[in-house]
Amino acid sequence: MSEGRCTWCGDDPQYVAYHDNQWGRPVYDKYELFEKLCLDGQQAGLSWLIILRKTEHYRTAFDGFDPAKIAQYDEAKVEALLQNPGIVRNRLKVNSIIRNAKAFLAMEQQGVDFSAFLWDFVGGQPKLNHWQTTAELPATSAESDAMSKALKKAGFNFVGSTICYAFMQAVGMVNDHLVSCPQHAECQR
Q: What percent of the chain has pLDDT over 70?
């Protein structure tokens, strides 16, 4: 374990690589943000490590998270997805990705840039926090509350404030690496 690394990732090599190379790094690509928001919704009630281990299966099962393709899924496709052992086979969660794809496309049709929409909740740039211990990390924030409310209004689901905050951490909208973690300064750059 790296000296000072955030303790939540433990010693699992995949989790450590995710922590060191992805978590907290700012993401601005609207399709990457869409994928991550959908994956964070899949985590509800589960550990992130379960979803992390299934990410490639999700990408294959959901056409690379292409919203235009996903929005066309019919009931036969849903039934096929529910038989796929590579993803979480929960009807509500599978349908949430389809619903979110339709909401994403509706926003685009209204001229709303998904990336700008999301990043506006933090003023367009990462919010730098200075947590000393994991116990200080919040589960929600005023920004995640507002994001959740706005996403729900736009037609998204599995986007409660806790999911939105985890999403914001993951895509670097907030830098919640502990100050002792080497990635705190790295993400700040």
A: 98
